[in-house]
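Researcher: Please translate sequence to structure tokens.
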Amino acid sequence: MTKKKLIIGDIVLLSFFIILIILIKTEVINTIDSLVYQGISSFINPALTNIFKMITFLGSTVFIVLATIVILITLWKSRGKFFLLLIIIAMSLSSVLKLIIARPRPDVLKLVIEDTYSFPSGHTIAISTLIGFLIFLIWQEKGRLNKNLKVVLTVFLSIVALLVMLSRIYLGAHYFSDILGGIIISILVLFNFYGLFCLKK
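Model: Translation complete:
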């Protein structure tokens, strides 16, 4: 990857993010957010709620901190310190953007209580950054994992990330557009990590 491609990628991702913010501020995207929530909330029941509360924990600060500690201990000499930098940048962006955008949480049935602003989804940023980093490690590994196993692990981890995102809408913690914002931010952070640290210029 060249610096030019990295810059172009950043411009594209930031453009999508800015457009999303405009759609949110002008409330143009409200209809889509509402339709997505209505579709997902139609499945609400006690058993599924308990399942999603467990799934959503995977994007929580507690879980991400624990995962970061494990990665630091096992991979410090290789890429552990890069992940620490990744997660700090990603979650700092989440906190700052929440304060800047100051979007209230959805006015829907709240199955979990949150006391911060809604956009972007911090759980989405956290789990996407973690899963993205793990998938990167999987495909960088040589010898122990064959291609088929790498594909299986990638699909499994991607499904886990998607379930965490889905749980945030189901539990009434986020709008669909909050999830999109979180995805864009995590891709932006991962893209720059990949470009700056792991590819030849």
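Researcher: Any highlights?
Model: Residues 3-197 form one domain.
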